Predict the 3D structure of the following.
Amino acid sequence: MPQLSCRDLTIGYEGKTVVSGLSFDVNAGDYLCIVGENGTGKSTLMKTLLKLMPPMSGRITAEDGLSSNQIGYLPQQTAAQRDFPASVKEVVRSGCLNRCGMRPFYSKPEKRMADENMEKLGIAALAKRCYRELSGGQQQRVLLARALCAARKILLIDEPAAGLDPKAAVEMYSLIKKLNDEGISIVMISHDIAASIKHASHILHIGERYPLFCGTVSEYQQSDIGRKYAGLGES
Amino acid sequence: MEIMDKLALYFQFPFVRYAMVAGILIALCSSLLGVTLVLKRFSFIGDGLSHVAFGATAAAVALNLTNNIFLVLPVTIICAILLLRAGQNAKIRGDASIAMISVGALAVGYLIMNIFSKSSNLSGDVCATLFGSTSILTLTRASVWLCAGLSMAVITVFLLFYHKIFAVTFDEDFATATGTKAKTYNLLLAAVIAVIIVLAMNLVGALLVSALVVFPALSAMRVLKSFKAVTICSVLVSVSCAALGILISILAGTPVGATILAVNIAGFGIFSLIGLAARSG
């Protein structure tokens, strides 16, 4: 059974449809990239998957036991976070919150997990630094470490390379690939089609109002739309 | 030594001691949520609520209630929740509804005071409610206990939900997406903010309340870099500014609320300078 499955999904907000007819599955270990032009509803789709907004019609079903406290989420940064006084450690630990339930404080294993995730993403040395003083690439790693603390099975990622310089973007993509190789499913929004083809296992290409393509990467590369956009991405 | 003698004399009066105790407690809990208020863009809700609390106080005066907090507190909590809901609903403009409720409450409150007040010094009463010139010095023993109880409640809630408040303030979408009930915590925050506003109104008056909440947090944020450090520092700043402000106002005979805020403004100036020096040095 797929971890996450959408059937005939219509999404939108304030009564306006953005995309309709979405059907796709995410199986354990998949790396799905959602691509498409700006304004085609990629972020709306992600917010719907995260249950931050309700779908207009259709169904999203999750595997038994995959409740929202087993999902990790790497959002695009908001303006409020940029002037927030928080240390890296505090931010990463806040990812453990969904394991606490009603317990008011973090337990030892949770703190250890936060430390391990910082180690894994190479930000352990920054633990005491202030989040808002880090570079864009470092901030993304901090948020990814936080998402890892929350994720047990699946990570949803929204434009991880937005605002990063090319080197940091490449590093970010290979980190995500490494996590995927370790067994976590990835659902990622990206407008970097070349990088998506390189790393992902599946592609969902959303066009205006309806999905244009959904399938594996090799199928995408042979499809008309895939050839057109992949060509654009490389040039 | 003359100042110390004068202070020793004043502190023999129970109402001065009550004012000091209540002032310090109020300053403590009002600063706790300052960071959250500033960063969640809730400061304007705090300001709107203080106007609501003014209207409710006026109504309590008209009704001749002996302890107006039993009317003011529930009304303010209800309005806090309504305002928060309005702010979240994209179809109704949050800021417009806040302006409506808060300025409306201010106008109706003044009207009620004018019509029903039996006092000969109406403008003095209004001024006291808005700027808190004397109310902190007229606290009874019972209201000091009430104030202490409410402060303890605020501090307990803050400690129990510290990590949740951090998560919801830092990134509400992430918290919701990963299974934290951010909406519930927002409601809790709104209720706590309402309690703080009502408490702090005794100290500095309705118009100056939001400054008491926001200034210590802004000062601490100039210099410090983690949520924990900023929270602790803003509590210390708030308590010392309040204590100093009350002492100065007793000695110099200045209005309590305005003096406390003047000390807070000075504190903000000092912290800004330290922050600038730290960044350039």
Observations:
- Strands of chain A lie at 4-13, 16-26, 31-36, 57-62, 71-74, 154-158, 185-189, 202-206, 211-216.
- Residues 85-152 of chain A form one domain.
